[in-house]
């Protein structure tokens, strides 16, 4: 199948420049998001992920570049005309309206008759298991229930793409795990394209078909959760995703997963590796995480972590201040490239974009 035909959202050289005195918040990024997929934009605060989402939604103006939804250029369209819907971090429900009227509100603004908008709102509330609480106001609902109402309200506009701005961050940890499973189930059942912004690596890996790791307004890496976690492309990605040790070697920086590290007592006969001291022992249930300080750490190499299965640790416990030898198989070491580089400043006449190609085809 042609890649463009299977693309829900395409962004081309997308840029957001708030001031000429500071680097762009989003700097000429290109990305294609497949139809019917769950895409997570992931990165630390200030990386540009929420700005990118807001530009797709039409809540933030675009400085340069283009946004296409199913090959239709929506860059300059009003938010309501784009075919997208936004689910906000705070849920943004009207406190004086019932769940039913919150969901039906956008239809009311469009002039849909009360009976029809309530019928459609009630159907969606049933779909998200909130039909029995349709008359309750937001203050009478739990965080998870409010999220279900917010989702139903977003879906009533029949969007082709649902945009989610850190929708789980306000929930407690137990409910967060429960609700991310429900989000994934709803996305599959509805067959919609979801674009979800989060700073949580765990959340992105649990939800995404495609992860987009961002840093300083640039895209560092795009791939499945398996690809990004197991094959980090840059030192930033390896450190940000966690679970990796970044080691400086003569050949350059490499990443080795914590659970691929080998550790042995320094006095063990035949053992070899880098000399280190155990500085931390943290029990994590199924696993035990050991923190180590290398005796001769290469420049740029920080402390090292080793993840042992609980049964392996209990069979041969390690203790604080113990001298050990650290090693790994070269097959598990991943060579890292430098981080994403800022593109050259745009010229006065921007290069051709996907919009120009489509216009040429139509003309």
In short, what is this structure?
With 363 residues, this protein is an alpha+beta fold.
Describe it for me?
This protein is α+β, with helices and mostly antiparallel strands. Helix content is 28%, strand content 29%. The chain has 10 helices and 18 strands. It has helices spanning 49-57, 99-109, 114-127, 143-155, 173-190, 201-207, 225-230, 235-241, 310-315, 354-362, and strands at residues 7-16, 26-34, 38-42, 64-69, 72-73, 84-87, 161-165, 193-198, 210-215, 218-223, 244-249, 252-257, 262-265, 274-283, 287-294, 304-309, 323-327, 334-335. It has a 6-stranded mixed β-sheet, sandwiched between helices. Helix 2 crosses helix 3, helix 2 (99-109) packs parallel to helix 4 and helix 3 packs across helix 4. The longest helix is centred in the middle third of the chain and has 18 residues, at 173-190. It starts with 6 loop residues before the first strand and ends with a helix.
Q: Helix/strand/pairing class, anyone?
A: alpha+beta
Number of domains in the coordinates?
2
Indicate the low-confidence ranges by residue numbers.
348-352
Largest sheet composition: 6 strands, mixed
Approximately how much helix is present in the residues? 25-40%
Shape: globular
% residues in beta strands: 25-35%
Q: What is the tally of beta strands? A: 18
Provide the gyration radius in Å.
Answer: 24 Å
Please give the order of strands in the largest beta sheet.
Answer: 6-7-8-3-9-10
CATH topology of the largest domain: Rossmann fold
The CA-CA distance between the termini, in Å, is 24 Å
Order of helices and strands: EEEHEEEHHHEHEHEEHHEEEEEEHEEH
**What's the CATH C level of the largest domain?**
Alpha Beta
* Tally of DSSP helical segments: 10
CATH superfamily of the largest domain: P-loop containing nucleotide triphosphate hydrolases
Mind telling me which CATH architecture of the largest domain this is? 3-Layer(aba) Sandwich
Mean pLDDT: 89
């Amino acid at each position: 199948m042609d890649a463009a035909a299977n693309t829900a959202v395409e962004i081309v050289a997308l840029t957001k420049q708030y001031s000429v005195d500071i680097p762009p918040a989003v700097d000429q990024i290109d990305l294609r998001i497949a139809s019917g997929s769950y895409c997570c934009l992931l990165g630390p605060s200030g990386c540009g992920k929420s700005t990118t989402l807001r530009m797709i939604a039409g809540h933030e103006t675009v400085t340069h570049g283009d946004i296409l939804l199913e090959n239709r250029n929506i860059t300059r369209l009003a938010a309501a005309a784009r075919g997208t819907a936004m689910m906000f971090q705070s849920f943004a429900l009207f406190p004086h309206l019932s769940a039913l009227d919150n969901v039906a509100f956008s239809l009311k603004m469009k002039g849909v008759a009360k009976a029809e908008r309530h019928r459609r709102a009630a159907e969606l509330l049933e779909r998200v298991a909130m039909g029995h609480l349709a008359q309750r106001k937001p203050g009478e609902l739990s965080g998870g229930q409010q999220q279900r109402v917010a989702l139903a309200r977003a879906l009533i506009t029949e969007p082709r793409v649902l945009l989610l701005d850190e929708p789980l961050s306000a929930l407690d940890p137990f409910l967060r795990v429960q609700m991310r499973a429900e989000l994934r189930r709803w996305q599959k059942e509805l067959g919609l394209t979801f674009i979800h912004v989060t700073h949580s690596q765990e959340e992105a890996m649990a939800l995404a078909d495609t992860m987009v790791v961002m840093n300083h307004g640039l895209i560092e890496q795009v791939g499945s959760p398996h690809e990004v976690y197991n094959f980090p492309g840059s030192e930033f990605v390896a450190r940000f995703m966690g679970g990796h040790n970044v080691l400086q070697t003569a050949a350059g920086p490499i990443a080795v997963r914590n659970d691929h590290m080998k550790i042995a007592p320094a006095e063990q006969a035949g053992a070899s590796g880098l000399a280190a001291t155990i500085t931390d022992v943290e029990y994590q249930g199924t696993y035990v995480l050991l923190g180590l300080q290398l005796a001769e750490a290469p420049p740029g190499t920080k402390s090292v972590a080793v993840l042992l299965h609980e049964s392996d640790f209990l069979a041969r416990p390690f203790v604080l201040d113990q001298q050990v030898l650290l090693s790994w198989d070269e097959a598990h070491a991943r060579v890292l490239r430098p981080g994403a580089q800022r593109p050259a400043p745009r010229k006065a006449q921007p290069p051709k974009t996907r919009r120009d190609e489509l216009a040429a085809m139509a003309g």
